[in-house]
Design a protein that fits this description.
By secondary structure, the protein is α+β, with helices and mostly antiparallel strands. The chain has five helices and eleven strands; from the N terminus they run βββαββαβαβαββαββ. Strands 7, 8, 9, 10 and 11 form a five-stranded antiparallel sheet that branches. Strands 4-5-3-6 form a four-stranded antiparallel sheet. Strands 1-2 form a two-stranded antiparallel ribbon. β1 and β2 form a beta hairpin. The longest helix has 13 residues. It is elongated, with a radius of gyration of 22 Å. The chain starts with a strand and ends in a 6-residue tail after the last strand.
Length: 188
């Protein structure tokens, strides 16, 4: 935007890109419906790595056995312009049937599954069980010196549980990545 000193008015200039492009980085969840064929996931991931985009979470599984379709759920971050670019470039891949930005399309339900191994004895063991109960995590394996907890929830809930388990003996964590669906009658 340029200010005309004589008139006090402002005008937009093609050289002032700050007025037209947002620098706000936002996290978005994308649902990508693809043909379940060899190499499709590699092409999708290649699009991200080739352009320097980061994938924060990635899940993929066949969702329509008869139609041979898979759903890839990708959590990524970028400015609105970068997210639009990612969507457009994904849409150009031949095996991609549909791309939905669940974040932009409205409310969505996001969940993640994690397994956490906690090595603890004595008071730490008791505290780990107490916190697992509060977070509704299940002990799916138990030995005299360790637990494996299963927790399902938002990524933030998983992060909070892991943060509390670290001082109690968290040794290992495995996360599935985000699975997401839009709320209501809309489908991706």
């Amino acid at each position: 935007m340029a200010l005309n000193i004589a008139t006090g008015s402002t005008s937009h200039s093609a050289y002032d890109l700050r007025s037209t492009f947002s620098e706000v980085v936002e996290k978005h969840t994308l649902a990508v419906i693809v043909d379940n064929e060899p190499g499709v996931l590699a092409r999708v991931i290649g699009l991200f790595s080739g352009r320097g985009y980061n994938i924060e979470s990635l899940t993929v599984a066949e969702t329509d056995h008869q139609g041979h379709l898979s759903r890839i759920t990708i959590v990524t971050a970028g400015t609105p312009q970068i997210i639009d670019q990612i969507e457009a470039q994904l849409g150009r891949i031949v095996q991609v049937r549909a791309v939905h930005d669940l974040t932009a399309e409205g409310p969505a339900v996001e969940r993640e599954l994690a397994l956490l191994k906690v090595v603890a004895t004595g008071d730490h063991r008791v505290e780990a069980l107490r916190l697992a109960d509060i977070f509704r995590a299940k002990a799916v394996d138990s030995t005299l010196g360790s637990f494996v907890f299963e927790i399902t929830g938002t990524p933030e809930k998983v992060d909070a549980f892991a943060d509390l388990m670290r001082p109690l003996g968290l040794q290992e964590i495995a996360r599935t990545g985000v699975a997401a669906l839009s709320r209501g009658v809309k489908t991706a």
